[in-house]
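Write out the 3D structure for:
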Amino acid sequence: MSTDYQQYLSSVFAEEVEGEAFFTGLSQRAADPEHQRKWQVLAQLETQTKERIRDAMRELDIEVSEQRHNVERGAQLAEQFSRLPWLEFLTAFQPSLKKFVAQYSAGEKLATEDGRERTLLRYITHHEQALLAFVVRELEGRGEESLDAIQALLDKPLHG
């Protein structure tokens, strides 16, 4: 596999580590139990995605570890954004998710053939699209179904 693919996976892995810390931090700070549960589910998706990327990198004999600065940045962002009201936060978060969806969609071109690499890259894009769908549904007032796309991707969805 190309060096570009390997570097891309390393970059996305770091982003997932940050995202996991971010959503975990939001969950820990949420006053509303329903918001707390939703942040936990988003954190679970980030964890699952991170682990899939880690597995792929290990198959390529690339050692990967979580960097403290990525965890700390995610936690700092959670501290900062947890102060915003729910809908205000989601409105502010939506453009970032759109940017990541475009970035990950473009990254799919790094796999030139069908196979495990392409499957992983598509999954990475789909996971970000699911996060965006969550935000869109929440902003549309459809909170009862906002986690549907995320739950569909999870190997072992949280319930409750």
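The mean pLDDT is 93.
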